[in-house]
């Protein structure tokens, strides 16, 4: 595996792991605040990010590189509000998409087409995660400071499904 690709993949391993820790901190905060729906949603997000990290670790090792398992800084322990949590989620996912785009560029520059192919999965995953974060953020904004609305939002979050554009059949 080429050095630049290996480095870019290891950078991404760290970012996916950091995302997992960040979302775990959000889940834990929401749980302590009694926001069960938000908490479950963020625990799930955290698990997904860990899965993204592991998938990269295995790929790097299988391709003859060496995956580096990073340590992490302590994420924030407090968040201002549910709105704040979902604003941060969207902002963070947008940053991750940018970093996946950079990774694609490294693969193309280094003519590493198998890794380029592998990374396509992450691109569509990012489309999904951004779409989901945007949809939920719009809902939280509608709720505003209404306590009853927040209660319903939190409850409904358990069952929310977002269909991103890349999975919709335009002919259907
Ligand atoms: Fe794996 Fe949402 O970045």
Features:
172 residues; mainly alpha; Ferritin; 5 helices; globular; binds MU-OXO-diiron
> So what's the CATH class?
Mainly Alpha
The unreliable regions are: none
The residue fraction in helices comes out at: over 70%
CATH architecture: Up-down Bundle
Please give the structural blueprint:
Layout: H1 3-32, H2 36-62, H3 82-109, H4 113-143, H5 147-156
The structure holds MU-OXO-diiron.
MU-OXO-diiron is lined by residues 16, 19, 49, 52, 93, 96, 129.
Brief characterization of the structure:
The protein is mainly α.
Explain the overall architecture.
- It is built from 5 helices and no strands.
- It is globular.
- Helix 1 (3-32) packs antiparallel against helix 2, helix 1 (3-32) runs antiparallel to helix 3 (82-109) and helix 3 runs antiparallel to helix 4.
- By secondary structure, it is mainly α.
- It starts with a helix and ends in a 16-residue tail after the last helix.
- It has one domain (3-163): Ferritin, core subunit, four-helix bundle (Ferritin, Up-down Bundle), CATH 1.20.1260.10.
- The mean pLDDT is 94.
- The longest helix has 31 residues, at 113-143.
- Helices cover 73% and strands 0% of the residues.
- The protein binds MU-OXO-diiron.
């Amino acid at each position: 595996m080429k050095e630049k690709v290996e480095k870019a993949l290891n950078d991404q391993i760290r970012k996916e792991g950091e995302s997992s820790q960040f979302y775990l901190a959000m889940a834990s905060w929401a749980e302590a605040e009694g926001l069960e729906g938000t908490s479950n949603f963020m625990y799930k997000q955290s698990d997904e990010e860990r899965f993204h990290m592991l998938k990269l670790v295995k790929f790097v090792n299988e391709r003859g590189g060496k995956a580096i398992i990073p340590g992490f800084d302590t994420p924030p322990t407090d968040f201002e509000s549910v709105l704040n949590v979902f604003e941060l989620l969207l902002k963070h996912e947008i940053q991750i998409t940018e970093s996946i785009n950079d990774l694609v560029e490294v693969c193309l520059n280094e003519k590493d087409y198998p890794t380029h192919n592998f990374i396509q999965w992450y691109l569509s995953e990012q489309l999904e995660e951004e779409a989901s974060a945007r949809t939920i953020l719009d809902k939280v904004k509608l709720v505003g400071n209404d306590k009853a609305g927040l209660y319903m939002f939190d409850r409904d979050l358990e069952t929310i499904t977002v269909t991103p554009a890349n999975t919709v059949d335009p002919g259907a």
